[in-house]
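Consider the tokenized backbone below.
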């Protein structure tokens, strides 16, 4: 059964198609595009050529959806961005789908959501899309998807490349974040369970990086706790916090196995760049003997839990629009005040040590000509303002990306691009 939230933004025809992810679909009576996953009732994932045909059909069949190429993988496959809704809408939501190539459920949920939003004609959808632009990278790792590998064709984990930007995939996403300035960045993944301590249908996690503005951090947690998890639970799924093992009897946390504040992970990079972020992880492992015996049933549950969580995201975008805009706009402007510490380590559940804290950050970093030549493209992709001269460049902290700059250039930052020279007074 589809959730009540999703049926608010779908036509009857589209609702029937999307509901096929949970129950066996009926044959479509119109020309609405369908994924290979839907056509097979979850027996197989949508293939590469099917995905491209599906996106082309959506682009041609809907006047509210457009598709552009934002990059090319090492093996020559397109990296694409789908835009749905009003370009000048006050709120922008970016979906990054399946950065890990062997985690397909998020990609399937993104594809059907693109279709559903592109073809729905009801008032609720029109209202949503008049105020919110939905941006979707439907396949963030095409080479890894074809090879069924976590990393890309160079075996690089793209979700550990959002500072260095060594991969074509991460570079394309950074350019989208810079140019589109999304208010919410929603990152879809899957995980392997460890029963009985770590086996929910769905886990999520907000930016833990301490450089996330307090308003952005608060709204990210509201997205998780008041919208995504309740939406999943309303559809019969269990939900919890990613990376935290819990006691099966008391529910008390007993061990953290993932989910720190390192800045190179997308949800943390999102927070440092003044956007709300949320990581979503659906459970790969079968939940029941029935799912064990029928992989299609397991696959449908995996995609279904992602769709339920997406329903919560869309509700959040509608109901919290004003709060989202205040949080992200204030965070961007606060950087120009050039006040407050910057953290080179720690997380919201792991206080930074004095050695990890720039209590009185420099006013900027000086790069010599060789350093600047080596990193200027990455700084530009991050949207960092630089002031070049004959000797190299000066990178001021007084800018919207204030708390990102030291993570990129401070010699003590774990993943810095280069060791800039801190300048105490400007």
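A designed sequence for it:
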């Amino acid at each position: 059964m589809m959730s009540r939230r999703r049926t608010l933004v779908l036509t009857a025809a589209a609702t029937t198609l999307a509901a096929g992810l949970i129950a066996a679909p009926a044959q479509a009576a119109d020309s609405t595009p369908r994924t290979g996953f839907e056509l097979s009732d979850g027996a197989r994932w949508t293939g590469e050529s099917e995905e491209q045909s599906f996106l082309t059909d959506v682009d041609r069949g809907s006047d509210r959806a457009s598709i552009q190429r934002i990059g090319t993988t090492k093996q020559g496959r397109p990296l694409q961005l789908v835009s749905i809704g009003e370009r000048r809408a006050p709120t922008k939501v970016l979906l990054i789908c399946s950065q890990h190539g062997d985690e397909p459920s998020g990609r399937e949920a993104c594809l059907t959501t693109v279709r559903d939003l592109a073809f729905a004609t009801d008032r609720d959808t029109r209202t949503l899309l008049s105020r919110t632009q939905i941006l979707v990278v439907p396949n963030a790792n095409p080479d890894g998807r074809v090879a069924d590998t976590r990393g890309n064709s160079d075996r690089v984990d793209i979700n550990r490349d959002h500072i260095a930007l060594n991969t074509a995939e991460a570079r394309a996403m950074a350019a989208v974040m810079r140019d589109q300035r999304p208010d919410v960045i929603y990152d879809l993944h899957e995980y392997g369970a460890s029963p009985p301590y770590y086996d929910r249908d769905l886990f999520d996690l907000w930016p833990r990086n301490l450089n996330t503005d307090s308003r952005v951090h608060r709204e990210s947690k509201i997205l998780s706790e008041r919208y995504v998890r309740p939406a999943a639970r309303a559809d019969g799924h269990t939900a919890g916090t990613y990376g935290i093992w819990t006691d099966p009897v008391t529910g008390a946390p007993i061990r953290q196995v993932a989910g720190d504040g390192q800045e190179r992970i997308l949800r943390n990079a999102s927070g440092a760049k003044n956007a709300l972020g949320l990581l979503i992880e659906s459970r790969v492992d079968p939940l029941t003997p029935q799912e064990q015996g029928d992989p299609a049933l397991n696959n449908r549950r995996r995609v279904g839990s992602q769709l339920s969580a997406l329903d919560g995201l869309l509700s959040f975008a509608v109901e919290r629009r004003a709060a989202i805009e205040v949080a992200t706009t204030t965070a961007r402007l606060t950087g120009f005040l050039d006040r407050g510490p910057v953290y080179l380590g720690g997380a919201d559940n792991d206080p930074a040590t004095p050695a990890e804290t720039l209590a009185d950050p420099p006013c900027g970093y000086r790069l010599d000509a060789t350093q600047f030549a080596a990193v200027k493209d990455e700084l530009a992709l991050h949207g960092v303002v630089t002031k070049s001269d004959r000797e190299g460049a000066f990178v001021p902290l007084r800018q919207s990306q204030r708390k990102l700059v030291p993570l990129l250039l401070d010699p003590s930052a774990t993943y810095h691009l280069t060791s800039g020279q801190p300048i105490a007074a400007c």
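The first strand starts at residue 65 and ends at 72.
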